[in-house]
Specification:
mainly alpha; Arc Repressor Mutant, subunit A; Tetracycline Repressor, domain 2; 2 domains
Amino acid sequence: MAAIGSALQHPQPREVSAAGPRAGATADRAVAATLACIARGGLAKLTVDDVAAEAGCSRATLYRSFSSKRALVAAAVRSESERIASELVAGVAQAPTLDDAVTDVIVAGARALRDSAALRFVEAHEPEVLEPHLSFAGGDRLHAEAARRIAPAFDRWCDDPERAAEWVVRVGLSLLSSADPPVDVTDRAAVRVYVCTFVTPGISVPPSAVSVLEERS
């Protein structure tokens, strides 16, 4: 279970053997199978046999790419994190303003997390798995790592895009995890008003970006 936090906070290269493209394809199938198994039954009862059956391969084949169940789970979490971060960064490439970029990151990120069947199952049935990684020191490490991955989304707007990204991550996760959030994080118009009021005023914008904003206003 600790592999979830470990994968997010201490990313490492995927465990793949030196057998070439075929090994890479097996690893990709194993990652998808791990997520599918977690979505059906969670982490506590997950076994390497379950993943092998879902991936259509043998235990021995899996062990040629991954050393353990923990490594499988870590690879699955890392893969999902990288996929979502890449989509968020790509999704704001044409954002006209910082307000739009922050809004789109929060809304798209919330939708992506809510669309993850594996995360929904763990959140609903095994919350004790997530809790250590969402609060105190674990939460700080999680926020920092998530910020590092989405920082490129704010490169054109901020002097310190990673710090800006961490602020956005903290706000977004706080809204998403709140039992009574002040705004629906999937409602773009409402989120944009919230962002303009409470989020972007706390983000440093370099003079060059300010000039661009003034020209467009």
